[in-house]
Design brief:
Length: 184
């Protein structure tokens, strides 16, 4: 999927916490498997086509799969070893990415910064229904989980002349907040 996010949106997404899937390499001849921080197996097919980072000598190095247990780091081919840590950028759900692309930079920034203020990341999305894909006026629902609490977001929108975005946030603690953006 080709992303059409603006530079403002792209920069803010790069700052998001929990935007990477991190795994530990375990060799099982002839292949190897990745396990996440909760010792759950990560499907290798989900990461083979992506760029990845390898934790080497106390820092993350950018790499690309070249086959088997080999990764290209710059001009060097490197073989992954048992117990090494790798990370892969998470994907956003297609319908959620679509709403983020649809939002103005102002609405996007306001939404993401408020979500971050509540200790959530865009990448904490558990469930989303983007009604904006089907209607010019309505509401969409998104549910986020940061591992400590849940945040339900209702996005009320209008796209007929007036461009209106209102986000209502409700935390599992009962705390509620609303942000709004209007554009003619």
């Amino acid at each position: 999927m080709v992303s059409i996010l603006s530079n403002v949106k792209r920069q803010l997404l790069q700052l998001q916490k929990r935007s990477y899937m991190i795994g530990i390499v375990q060799k099982y001849e002839p292949d190897f498997v990745l396990f996440d921080h909760e010792d759950e197996q990560i499907l290798f097919q989900n990461v083979l086509e992506k760029d990845l980072d390898i934790y080497i000598n106390g820092r993350w190095e950018k790499g690309k799969w070249v086959g088997g247990s080999f990764v290209q780091i710059g001009s060097v081919t490197y073989e992954l070893q048992d117990g090494e840590k790798i990370r892969v950028k998470k994907n956003l759900a297609y319908s959620f990415q679509q709403v983020l692309e649809e939002l103005s930079d102002e609405s996007f920034t306001m939404f993401v910064k408020h979500l971050n203020h509540l200790s959530f990341s865009i990448y904490d999305l558990l469930y989303g229904h983007n009604q904006l894909l089907f209607q010019k006026k309505g509401a969409s629902i998104y549910v986020f989980d940061n591992g400590e609490q849940i945040c339900a977001v209702q996005h009320f929108f209008e796209r007929s002349g007036l461009i209106s975005d209102r986000f209502e946030f409700t935390l599992s603690t009962g705390e509620r907040s609303i942000i709004t953006s209007l554009t003619m």
